[in-house]
Fold these 3 entries.
Entry 1:
Amino acid sequence: MKYILTFILSLLFFSGCTSVSINEPAVKKITNPNDPYDYLNGFYDDDLDEALKVFKIACEKSVRKKLFQNVCINVYSYNNGKKFFTQNFTPKVLVSNTGDLGLITGYFEPLLFGSLIKTDKYKYPIYKIPNDLVIIKDKKNYPEFEKYRYRAKIVDGRYIPYDTREQIENRDDLVPVVYVDNKVDLFFLHVQGSGRVQLENGEVMNIGYASQNGRKYFAIGRHLVENGHVDKKDISLQTIKKYLKENPEKTDEVLNLNPSYIFFEKREQTATGSLSVPLIANRNVAVDIKHIPLGMPVFIETFNPKTKKPMNRLVIAADTGGAIKGEIRLDFFFGYGNSAGELAGLMKEKGRVFLFIPNI
């Protein structure tokens, strides 16, 4: 399908159940005299049986939401993905005030190398939730903490915003889950939200998001572009890492521009999204839940960042992210390992998004 709208690519670079309703102004009906699914490029060429399996996994949690309650109960009587999705949903194009094109980036589950004991090699801690991190429950009386996601610490009997990344890294009283050998890789573990750490004995530990310091995410890629360190058209995970490797004296300064900090915990499962179900490579996306509820099937029309061939498929919204904000804004989960990381690092593609609104 040829795009007729111009999209100005945002450079908020990058990169885990609240129920929300879909506002009618945010979507528009597909007017097709025959089959609305014909309007979705490549829909019938996709592996819809695989998409059905992933939707069933999502229903383990999303069935609690009124929007998906009936369709999730109904899903277990289907084994044919084409029949299930076409009979139980109506596709609608997601739109914003600039049209129906948005930005689709990518994320993945990285592999880091570490030790349970701090050594000269493994000296960068992956921290557990600090004991002094407080989540404010009385939100009405502390509206000024909304911008800090109601995260705080208590000093002299009053709430203050929780520490920034730089402040946290200068502390020595926090408890680590594990130590790793690369500070930049650790930073991008924070961006991805989950990963795996291979210990020296060969054991692989699953690490997942536990909490956050409440500070707003800042895209360091934007800083590198604005200051002429990396060309806008070349910005990616790979070029950011390359700049930091070639300029080690700048590493702390650049990383600390992002005050957001993630705390982790050891997990039995591999990467798990905000819906609290395991993420499936190439079938799950992170979304802004103000516009797309977790658990919703979403058909995307976009492009492979390496081959530039169409990448049209049905995915399930199962995660969120600090940088994933806006109506037409998705983060595509490429899976685990180096090849997934390469694609995720390059992914900054235009895309159209179709929400599958349940009929029942």
Entry 2:
Amino acid sequence: MTHPDPGVAPARKRRLSFLGAMPLTLLFIGLLIVPLVLTIVLSFRPYDYDLGVQAGWTLEQYVEIFTSNYTLTVFWRTLWISGLVTIICVLIGVPESYILSRMKAPWNSVFLLVILSPLLISLVVRAFGWSMLLNPMSPIGKLTQMMGLGSLLYTSSAVVIGLVHVMLPFMIIPVWTSLNKIDPQTIKAAYSLNASKWQTIKRVILPQATPGILSGSLIVFGLSTSAFAIPVLLGGGRSRMVSNSIYEQFMVDLNWPMGAALAILLLVMNLIIMMSYNQILERSYKRSLG
């Protein structure tokens, strides 16, 4: 009686796993890797305003970006607006997530639905809603003018307000998910050791909520840097962000290599900032857990 080779079954499983992963791998390559490579190649193509995209290679687009004060100002504006939106979302979203995690049924479901309900409304509709609220003739607009702040519409402040409203659910959900994973016994143990409520939040709850804060911050920052509708409708021409410049290069000026170069630099800036932030927060998380 012959015995089956014990190495055959694992090898067959590996082949089946490889074949099963092939469709998703090809989809990933076709929808992400190939367009990204083509965009990188396009960013190095010469461009002539009379003849369009030319064959060959050039660094002209990148040189123009790094030597243009206007373009650098747009990148800086995109960076600080996205960073400020992320900070505000953390300051608002973390306490709100904690309150939501402490609620009992059915109120937790009701308030979770309230938090998620703005996502059911079109982004453009919400932006128009804020433009009406911040209009100089609206009650809020008149109040800000009486306070000496002037009109908020078509300013960076309006862009920040609109982005915070849009991005807040993306901060609350990851933090709320992390808080729900906390073992209630650890909180009871902290209280039994005479820890105050603030000490319990600082040393028990916040460290365990760090993964959710990290995930939410990365999502909010990434979506904010690539936001398009909010800066256009609430910022106007005075608060342009990189995404607006990319759209203008592709659709108005038809300078596709410049638009591709702006898109690649925005992607690189996002990756550097996100990876650095991830490293800093993960080290803090590991130190807090000993």
Entry 3:
Amino acid sequence: MTDFTDEELALDPHFAEQFEKGFRPACQLYLISPPAIDETFVDQLAQAFDGGKVAAFQLRLKGIDDDAIAALAGPIQALCADREVAFIINDSIGLAKRLNADGVHLGQGDGDPREARKLLGPKVQIGVTCHDSRHLAMEAGEAGADYVAFGAFYPTTTKETTHRAEPSILGWWTTLFELPCVAIGGITPDNAAPLIAAGADFLAVSGTVWNHPEGPKAGVAAFASVLGGA
């Protein structure tokens, strides 16, 4: 295999500007749960949904087993169905199958999208974390993922990150591929505009909504103007 220098592999930050932009639907909000919840969380989620359009909700709970997550998931999943929000399980293909979730989001160590597709069927949405890697994103697409996620774009306290992506990777992806891409990591209403302009199809947000001083409804509503009133 030929070895390339970091400079040779670097993405031209103006790559996407060389091409005419094709049509893509307006950027939408992808809401991720707080790192820990209890039985009352469904009320907070309902408030968040009252704040504006949310396309997808990911239940992401670390440090507890699938049985505990499943016990919490019922009312949350029902609310998502009622509000026409896709219900996504983080990491666990088996739990997504068990709950008949709308989708599963896989980190790089959480399983192969091909195996997920075999187990979950053709209609379930499969997302893959690709950090700041064009190579991982292309591999995910070839493996049958329904979307790829890039990030972190900004500092975040929601999870520990070792990769920092630049907005240009969103432009590169949406110029060459139809598959949707999700931008994640420290995104707020104040810093989201460059990611939307670069080509993000979805903004994955968490702490900026749940920690909003006026509550989760205001947290979601704060994104409305930057998303064009979505």
